[in-house]
């Protein structure tokens, strides 16, 4: 397993344990695999698990991933690389699911989210012309930090958007439903949808950021991104010892 792939598996395991268990239950679970859990990492279960699994043997990590039903092919975990517009983890990755006739709305929202260090994936705009369409979408779904669905009329009848929702539900990521003419249906209908209420894209982007910062599934990751992108203070001559 390549180092980059191993990091992706650790991240996937951390997110799944964060979703399922309390801190005490996480310790109990990892102890079953003889993983030492004496580390402390604040209030973030995600960061706690990532720190605990740092340096773990590959075979042991694969057994944990397999037990959690994180994509396993034989003895190897199948982790797709991110799409081309997400080359690294410097931004929070938000998959924006939409109908083709709503691509302008999706792109507008994506552009407004940049202010909050959130990189939105809009399939009709972000896929490289020479890249295989379905593969790039699968890469984005596999590496996203959260999922946002723009429910315009006809969204629930689209084969592609329903496949994308199914992928997000199966991965257990944070899902935000943005209602623009149609109510959410199926697995995500139980969650309260975000309504437009005549608000601008800037206002919706601000609320999306607020929702992500309040949710335990996404807050640690987004806070990490914000901290990493915080401008470093400039050092003047007067501050340098002579």
Describe it:
This protein has ten helices and seven strands. 35% of the residues are buried. It starts with a helix and ends in a 14-residue tail after the last helix. It is α/β, with parallel strands linked by helices and 242 residues long. The chain has two domains: 3-77; 92-227, Toll/interleukin-1 receptor homology (TIR) domain (Rossmann fold, 3-Layer(aba) Sandwich). The protein is globular. It has a five-stranded parallel beta sheet with strand order 4-3-5-6-7, with helices on both faces. It has a two-stranded antiparallel ribbon with strand order 1-2. 45% of the residues lie in helices and 12% in strands. Helix 1 (3-20) packs parallel to helix 4 (58-67).
List the defining traits of the structure above.
globular, 12% strand, Rossmann fold, alpha/beta, 242 residues, two-stranded antiparallel ribbon, 7 strands, five-stranded parallel sheet, 2 domains, 10 helices
CATH architecture level-2 label of the largest domain: 3-Layer(aba) Sandwich
Residue runs with pLDDT of under 50 for 5 or more positions: 72-78
Number of strands: 7
Rough shape? Answer: globular
- CATH class group of the largest domain: Alpha Beta
CATH superfamily of the largest domain: Toll/interleukin-1 receptor homology (TIR) domain
Tell me the β content: 5-15%
Radius of gyration: 19 Å
Stated plainly, the CATH topology of the largest domain is called Rossmann fold
Strand order of the largest sheet: 4-3-5-6-7
Distance between the termini: 49 Å
Share in helix: 40-55%
**SSE string, helices as H and strands as E:** HHHHEEEHEHHEHEEHH
- Average pLDDT confidence is 85
């Amino acid at each position: 397993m390549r180092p980059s792939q191993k990091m992706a598996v650790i991240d996937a395991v951390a997110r799944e344990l964060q979703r399922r268990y309390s801190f005490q239950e996480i310790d109990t679970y990892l102890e079953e695999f003889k993983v030492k859990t004496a580390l402390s990492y604040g209030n973030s279960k995600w960061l706690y698990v990532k720190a605990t699994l740092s340096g773990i043997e590959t075979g042991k990590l694969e057994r944990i991933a397999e037990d959690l039903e994180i994509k396993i092919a034989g003895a190897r975990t199948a982790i797709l690389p991110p799409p081309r517009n997400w080359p690294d983890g410097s931004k929070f990755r938000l998959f924006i699911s939409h109908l083709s006739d709503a691509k302008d709305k999706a792109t507008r929202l994506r552009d407004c989210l940049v202010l909050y260090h959130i990189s939105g994936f809009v399939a009709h705009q972000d896929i490289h012309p020479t890249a295989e369409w379905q593969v790039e979408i699968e890469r984005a779904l596999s590496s996203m930090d959260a999922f946002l669905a723009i429910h315009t009329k006809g969204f629930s009848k689209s084969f592609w958007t329903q496949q994308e929702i199914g992928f997000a539900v199966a991965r257990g990521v944070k899902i935000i439903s943005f209602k623009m003419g149609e109510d959410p249906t199926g697995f995500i209908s139980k969650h309260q949808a975000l309504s437009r209420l005549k608000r601008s894209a800037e206002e919706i982007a601000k609320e999306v950021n607020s929702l992500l910062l309040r949710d335990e599934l996404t807050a640690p990751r987004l806070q990490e991104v914000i901290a990493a992108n915080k401008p470093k203070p400039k050092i003047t001559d007067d501050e340098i010892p002579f």
